[in-house]
Specification:
The chain is mostly beta strands and 277 residues long. It is 9% helix and 66% strand. The protein contains 2 helices and 14 strands, in the order ααββββββββββββββ. β6 and β7 form a beta hairpin. The radius of gyration is 21 Å and the shape is elongated. The two termini are 31 Å apart. About 3% of the residues have low confidence.
Length: 277
């Protein structure tokens, strides 16, 4: 994470501390206000990726990738009372550390240590209903649908994609008129997981095909601090985990290859500003 993002995070945490000293009475109206917001954030995604087979670890990738995120949320009386809508998109580009082996398998895990390019992008949509638990707390169950894309720069290039769906909940607490703390969680499943492996020289034309799907889980914590009538500073941390099952065996023109089993985790830190409406 860059020094600028770390500094901004510290400023937000200090602001949160000040907000907790605010003795003004909070209300669910403050939560609803923070949920009617368009937000632009800086994002840092720590990648954790591991490929395995029956013999053990084949290769790993890890490290932070930076980018931006935009989101739009709404909580109003629409088709239902306290109808909750949320949509977001993020894009990141950078390099991760690769530990693995030569493409022909020689040397085994750890024989190659390098870096590889990474492009990540995601979008998601939520729909739910806000429930008032008391004068400062709300619980919002929701359904979510989304898509994940990873352009992995190993070998000649590999692109992983999947959709996902799931059910989750958003628990929000407002200790003061200027501060909203949110905890969210999701349990779901990936769908249409797919890989495209680019070909190289010597008649290698690569391969493409489906991967095995898996459960997907996410937990996140965020804080919204109102710095002006309609302006919020927002800091959030999320962790997501899922897996890909191995592919079928494909002939690439130079031999037979498959994509092995893998597991992925993302730890995502976001910081930015939002405008309420």
């Amino acid at each position: 994470m860059s020094e600028g993002v770390i500094l901004l995070s510290r400023i937000v945490l200090l602001s949160i501390g000040c907000a907790l000293l605010n003795t003004a009475l909070a209300a669910t109206s403050d939560i609803r206000l923070s949920n009617n917001q368009i937000n632009l954030q800086s994002i840092s995604t720590k990648v954790g990726y591991t490929e395995t087979n029956s013999t053990g670890v084949l290769d790993t990738e890890d490290g932070p990738v930076s980018g931006f995120a935009v989101s739009l949320s709404s909580m109003r009386n629409g088709w239902i009372k306290s109808e909750y809508l949320y949509a977001d998109y993020d894009y990141s580009k950078g390099r991760t550390r690769y530990i693995g082996a030569y493409i022909n398998g020689g040397g085994g895990y750890g024989s190659v240590v390098s870096t590889s390019g990474a492009v990540l992008s995601n979008y998601s949509f939520r729909y739910g209903k806000g429930l008032t638990l008391n004068n400062s707390t709300m619980l919002t169950p929701f359904a979510e649908f989304g898509h994940h894309y990873w352009d992995r720069g190993v070998n000649y290039g590999e692109i992983y994609t999947h959709y996902y769906y799931g059910l989750g909940g958003l628990l929000q607490y407002s200790p003061s008129q200027s501060f909203v703390l949110s905890l969210n969680g999701l349990m779901g499943n990936t769908q249409n997981s797919y890989i495209k492996v680019m070909g190289g020289g010597g008649g290698d034309y690569g391969f493409a095909g489906p991967l095995g799907n898996s459960p997907v889980a996410r937990v996140g914590l965020s804080a919204d601090f109102r710095v002006d009538d309609n302006i919020y500073a927002k800091l959030s941390v999320e962790r997501t985990r899922f897996s890909y099952g191995k592919s079928a065996v494909y002939y690439t023109g130079t031999g037979y290859f498959l994509e092995p089993d893998s597991s992925t985790s993302y730890t995502i830190v976001k910081f930015g500003l939002g405008h309420t409406f």
